[in-house]
From TrEMBL:
Organism placement in taxonomy: Eukaryota, Metazoa, Chordata, Craniata, Vertebrata
Signal peptide residues on this chain, from the entry's feature table: none
Family listed: Belongs to the AGK family.
Gene responsible for this protein: Agk
Cofactor names: Mg(2+)
Pfam families: AGK_C, DAGK_cat
Record protein name field: Acylglycerol kinase, mitochondrial
EC number(s) from the headed UniProt entry: 2.7.1.107, 2.7.1.138, 2.7.1.94
Domain DAGKc: 58-200
Record-linked SMART domains: DAGKc
Catalytically driven reaction(s): a 1,2-diacyl-sn-glycerol + ATP = a 1,2-diacyl-sn-glycero-3-phosphate + ADP + H(+); 1-(5Z,8Z,11Z,14Z-eicosatetraenoyl)-sn-glycerol + ATP = 1-(5Z,8Z,11Z,14Z-eicosatetraenoyl)-sn-glycero-3-phosphate + ADP + H(+); a monoacylglycerol + ATP = a monoacyl-sn-glycero-3-phosphate + ADP + H(+); an N-acylsphing-4-enine + ATP = an N-acylsphing-4-enine 1-phosphate + ADP + H(+)
Amino acid sequence: AVKVLTTLRNHWKKTTFGVCLLSWGGHWLYGKHCDNLLRRAACQEAQAFGNELIPSSMPLKKATVFLNPAACKGKARNLFEKNAAPILHLSGLDVTVVKTDYEGQAKKLLELMENTDLIIIAGGDGTVQEVLQELWPGSLRIAVFSKIPIGFIPLGKTCTLSNTLYPESTNQVEHITNATLAILKGETVPLDVLQIKGEKEQPVFAVTGLRWGSYRDAGVKVSKYWYLGPLKTKAAHFFSTFKEWPQKHQGALMYLGPTERPPEEPEEKPPRPPLYVRIYRRLQLYWASRPKEIPQEVAPEDWEELKLSTIELSIATRNRQLDLTRTEDFMDICVEADTVSKGQFVNRGSQKMRDPHVCPEGSQCIQASRCILQLPEGTEGSFGIDNEEYEAMPVEVKLLPRKLRFFCDPRMREQMLRAAAQ
């Protein structure tokens, strides 16, 4: 023992390195063991759903999974197959996995969607937007597509929706298994969608929002400074201040105020009335539709107009702060002041990376159901729409309230209802 201690003391550098290596290895192995326990517990819970008896005449529920293998720097496929796929198969779902290997592939699968009971999006913000973009305006009517519940399995680098749908977790395996189990439990919440229409005919759909400004431009360059480690965010915003300062984004904004939320539509349609009742109603409608008086002119919509000079403009849904009992439908427009010092810009940039649509103190906050953003001719730059980059141009943004139903963790739904009651 004395000889061993002497040897270790004489080679203290190697000893220190060995101890550190063994400690790291032990911690890594323990983490893998904990992940396996989480997977096993999730699979046992899913097995309970799979063991439930169903009538022989009832077909299995069909689930279509849109998996983006490129998400999370190419790790998404492995993450899905290890953590989510076993749970889905054990639950008794008839699962079809579609890999979105190239842009536009989802559009070719519209005929598959006609026979699916639920959609599962496995990826990040970009995957969610691609599925909405390709499937929603297609041959399926919006009303039909809106009734198909959607599950979201967070596998991407940015997964904004997971903050609303699932409890916060620092363990990636736990986060993925919780999201997959939430799909099986069946609780859903309605989410708003933004329809963003520019000069092109095809609109863009977003579940989070649109950003235009200096914080967004600096944020997309953060990865270039990876070699600075934890300082990369501040570095990207600091070097951004070397441009013309103060940075102003100018334009004009026209908007309409919030709209009243209509009552919930009934889940089941009433039975079709007898033939004689339908004939009577058609005759009644025909006579009622004949012109009797000169119709009154419809009052013009009350548009508000605002001149913009801002360091950043954001137009966001209320999905981040979901209120299931609110009586009005609107989106949040945040016009940030352009009188920001360089120090404030750098400090606020870090906050914006964590919550891109936060509205800082001193900003002008507007609630609107529809807006038109007009830009001066020759305006350069880009929009960030659900963390995807689009060319900056004049756009009309329209709120489509409660258009999609997403599966959520029952604990989160209960938390939303409890917060609304207080």
